[in-house]
Amino acid sequence: MFVSLQRFGFGEAFISWVRLIYARPMCSVLTNTDRSPRFPLQRSVQQGCPLSPALFAIAIEPLALSIRHHTDITGLEVGGREALISLYADDIILYLRNSERSVPILLDLITSFGRLSGYTINWSKSNFMPLSDAYSPGFLENMPFKIVRDHFTYLGLTIPKDPKLIFKLNFLEFLSKLKSNIGNWKILPLSMIGRINSIKMVSLPRFLYLCQNLPIFLTSAFFKELDSIILSYFWNYKTHRISKSHLQKSKFLGGLGMPVFKHYYWAANIRALMFWLKGAPGNETPEAPLWVQMETNLAVGTSLKALLFSKLDKPKDLNKLSFVLKNSVKILNQVRKALSLPETTVHMPICYNQSFLPPWSDRTYHVWREKGLGSIKDLYIEGRFASFNQLREKFDLPHAHFFRYLQIRHYVKSKICNFELLPEKHVFFDVFFNPPGSVRLISKFVSLFGSCLSAPTVRFKEAWEEDLGVELSDDTWDRCLATIHACSVNSRHQLIQFKVIHRLHYTKAKLHKIFPSVSPMCDRCKVAEDTASHAFWFCPLLSGFWSSIFDWYSKAYNKPLPPDAELAIFGLSQHTSSLSSALKQSLMLGMVVAKRLVLKNWKSPSPPSFQMWIKDMISVIQMERLRLLRTESIEKFSAVWGSFLGHLDKLTAQSAPKGFSKI
């Protein structure tokens, strides 16, 4: 390891620090809660040390170099490029072309490297998958590896001999594991938000990993089955009360942030296709990955950039592409349709274009490309399609190229509507033209796809306006949606607010519409229909409860706060915009706790009491204090709850009613 560090040019100071770390390394084995006695580490690197993966990669690189540069070890050729070895830490995969000749040499290299470094391989865990049956008798029997005929597993991916089985062995297996996980989780006492988070934390990363490594086209039927599995789990196998699009919306737009697996699938694949920009024929960039170079050469009769920016004219042209290119283009077509992208964009290259044939036989257009006139967009000057004289002056074109100009002009006119003016740039390309190694690319694409979700809430707004007899401005309604998850860090409180605003609770009036035999009258007052506004506010038996809460806030914060139905139901109103942010936060949490008590007594003939609200608020504030103490934000706690607790202490000192306690 230290010799490798020196040969790779690491300085003496760095190497001396590594020597210090590995002077007398000690280890122990942890089995459940039992830890073994410490023992000296004789070889390899320390487990858990953040430096270990990099040190191991450096230590194993001499073996990789020996394999790559040995003339008798040959790899598979794809698209004119050789693939020989892939390494990820201690997981190694080799692609051998002449196995009968290469394998014995490979085994000798590994044995020699092991004698020098102490590196060993567990051959019983190593697999060899022959891609043909043309092996001499006895060759496979003498192999130290386990022989697999159909598929093997590498880095959590199942790699089959037949690529058509990739979907079955990976994505259908993912569905099977998802069902198994949900079978274990459904008995847990989780709220809907908790169930959504369990899918986000466990299942979504597994699915995303598959999509990032396996460019396989997934049909709508697959996602329909996937959605049916997780939606049933989210609703706890009860009736779905609202469309999934409202659950899938961003939390900032009033949704629950339910992951849209199709959007992550699109985002992961589009991020990979961003590397295609590095694979232009005759202009490959040095940093283009090997797989991009392979796919560039496999794109016969077209180019990767042309496939990116123009839809194939004929469906049969799709079948002429290689397996990976075909699946990638089908995924790209899904995205085009979802975002309403034009079939041909101005980023389309002029040369190596499957729908513009002249450059395949006329080198003139390649001269244009060398002069900087490479794409349709370059034909526009100051937002308008340039005349030949303008192009001639800008790119130094001879008069003899006028006929080629007419050809490309006719092509652009046939592909782009109103071609005289440069089309407006789609927001998709603002993300797509970022460097493919940029951070949070998948998240940006997912947000972009999420913006296309159609989940209007106008009907809920209009229903509340009719119930409450008020007119809610669009700005107020947008703030109501945006603050659903700001009312509390408690997911159950957030879910209450979500259900109230989206009118998901079964009132007697709603049940009467479903079951006419059910009376629509309120079970408490028995004098009015039990609509959503009546159940939460207008019921006469609730007036004392709400009046006491608003009176408490008025006295505690020394602000006149008359009872307000908007504030009670939405946690804010058009009249609270001038209040301090601390008081707004206190009011939002206080209102959702009050609605929680109303829901707890939903079928009870007796309304909740003010004393019950005080007890619940004390419990909630205690949790808020502990939370903010952990984040060292005690000043924020005092700003929000200082006046509330001061008023509570004052009343406690005066009368000390039963149920009151200090925090």
Number of continuous helical runs: 29
Report the principal-axis shape. Answer: globular
Overall mean pLDDT stands at: 91
Helix content percent band: 40-55%
Q: What is the beta-strand fraction?
A: 5-15%
The strand order across the widest sheet is 1-4
The SS-based structural class is mainly alpha
Instruction: Please tally the β strands and state the result.
Output: 14
Flag low-confidence runs. Answer: none
Distance between the termini: 59 Å
Biggest sheet details: 2 strands, antiparallel
Estimated radius of gyration: 33 Å
Organism: Cyprinus carpio (Common carp)
Protein name: Reverse transcriptase domain-containing protein
InterPro entries: DNA/RNA_pol_sf, RT_dom
Helix and strand topology:
Elements: H1 2-7, H2 12-21, E1 26-27, E2 30-31, E3 34-35, E4 39-40, H3 52-69, E5 76-78, E6 81-83, E7 85-88, E8 91-94, H4 99-117, E9 127-128, E10 146-147, E11 151-154, E12 157-160, H5 166-185, H6 192-213, H7 220-234, H8 244-248, H9 261-273, H10 290-298, H11 304-309, H12 315-318, H13 323-339, H14 358-361, H15 364-370, E13 380-381, E14 384-385, H16 388-395, H17 402-415, H18 427-432, H19 441-450, H20 458-468, H21 474-482, H22 491-501, H23 508-514, H24 532-538, H25 543-556, H26 565-570, H27 581-600, H28 610-630, H29 634-654
Parallel strand pairs: 9-10
Antiparallel strand pairs: 1-4, 2-3, 5-6, 7-8, 11-12, 13-14
Helix pairs in contact: 3-4, 5-6, 5-7, 6-9, 9-13, 9-19, 22-27, 25-29, 27-28, 27-29, 28-29
